[in-house]
Amino acid sequence: MPTNIIKHKYHISREDRNRQNKHGSFVIWFTGLSGSGKSTIASKLEQRLFKERVKTYALDGDNIRSGLNKGLKFTREDRLENNRRIAEVAKLFMDAGMITITAFISPLKEDRVQAKEIIGKDNFLEIYVNTPLEICEERDVKGFYQKARSGEIKNFTGISSPYEAPEAPDFEIKTEEESVEEAVERLYMFLQKKFKLL
Ligand SMILES: Nc1ncnc2c1ncn2[C@@H]1O[C@H](COP(=O)(O)OS(=O)(=O)O)[C@@H](OP(=O)(O)O)[C@H]1O
Ligand SMILES: Nc1ncnc2c1ncn2[C@@H]1O[C@H](COP(=O)(O)OP(=O)(O)O)[C@@H](O)[C@H]1O
Questions:
Q1: Residue 28 lies in a domain
Q2: Which residues contact 119 (CB under 8 A, 6 or more apart)?
Q3: Is 61 assigned a ligand-binding role in the annotation?
Q4: Where's the active site on this chain (predicted)?
Q5: pLDDT of residue 168
Q6: 71 is known to lie in a ligand binding site
Q7: Could you tell me the pLDDT band of residue 196, with boundaries at 50, 70 and 90?
Q8: ipTM of the complex
């Protein structure tokens, strides 16, 4: 804790909010290469939860990088800081009672370990969107892979910057083998079982 900062204790706790909402709150942390399917699956999952009247909020790469984290680049140092701030924000949303979904590359183990430490291990689910680089490159949703190959974009994850696949994710989605709908349904059932959503 920095010096001369004394936290004020507010009276409405996360538990109070969870009780009122009739469901717990936690963070669903997606990780995977650019174009792997993080945003697509995260968005569909959010819709699925919303339909069940679950309080949710999604934090997504490009949105956060054009606002809160504007100015951060794709160096190792900036990616770690990007992920640190996202984890802190996700924690706030979780404390506010939301099932919080994040969709960031979070390329290295240290990015995810840091997030898990900030959010708390019992509140953190790591979801690996496992799509091989060749497929992501073939999809090239934003045309960035082509630019990365030509050198126009530097430090691009999977091409000129590393991605460390999670060793033991809580949940894995292989998008070559499963449609978005199938993956979301399977994930929804997993969440139901683990957290007794409603
Ligand atoms: N150099 C480089 N490497 C990777 N990605 C790049 C880069 N430059 C821009 N982009 C776009 O930024 C999105 C990834 O941002 P993230 O905040 O998720 O990245 S990180 O967790 O800090 O590594 C990523 O979005 P997604 O495609 O949704 O993953 C890209 O569109
Ligand atoms: N099974 C699948 N799961 C997720 N996305 C898929 C799948 N099959 C094809 N796609 C397509 O792959 C692309 C993934 O893009 P996006 O969700 O933006 O990825 P990311 O957020 O990881 O960068 C989308 O165009 C999506 O329609």
A1: yes
A2: 27, 29, 87, 90, 91, 94
A3: no
A4: 106
A5: 97
A6: no
A7: low
A8: 0.99
